[in-house]
Amino acid sequence: MAEEVRTAPAPIADPAPLGLAAFALTTFLLSAKNAGWMSSASGLAFLGYAFGYGGLVQLLAGMWEFRNRNVFGATAFASYGGFWIGLYFWVQDVGGGLLAKNDVAAFNHDLGWILLAFAIFNAYMLIMSTQVNMAVFLVFLTLQLTEIVGAIANFEAGSAAAPTGAIKAAGYIGIVTAVVAWYASAAGVANGMTASRIRLPVGPRLLTATTAPDAIS
Fold first, then answer.
1. What is the pTM of this model?
2. Number of domains, the chain
3. Domain that residue 167 falls in
4. pLDDT for 135-192, tens place per residue?
5. How many angstroms separate the CA atoms of 153 and 32, rounded?
């Protein structure tokens, strides 16, 4: 009997540009609210997209990165997909109830703890991103600043219902984060297209690994 020959599964399209785009758009909507740009809007435009785009689509991108054997991309996208899905359900199931009871301090402090927890996760992902490329490193660097400033701002906000100066600052940093992530996404699309005439630079790795590192874009 002939020995069965197993071949490696064919690679799939790079899911990183999709995951970055989903992260960027949802981050932009929430950060624009925090920055005070949505004075004539409800400020909740981010909520549905936190579940459907930033959450579900980014989680799928993470699963496809597992398929591509990209441990960095899989961990990053799946974790932040979970972040947005978790934020959606927290606002729906917990946050809305706190605001209905006018317990703004508990609402703000909950957000502070959520952001602090993800800042801890993001810290080691930031370190690992130095082995990917400059564009991805800048995404995680600006995100780290967003989460740290956001956590401090929400802890300090207390019972303030309107965005404080610190929360607005976190919002502006978040907008920068979204723009950087959109650029990294656009670069991944342009550089990943067959015979594309458009190429966008992503910059070198800050640290060179002894073996080829996983890429996110």
1. 0.90
2. 1
3. 16-37+44-189
4. 999 999 999 999 999 999 999 998 887 888 999 999 999 999 999 999 999 999 999 9
5. 16
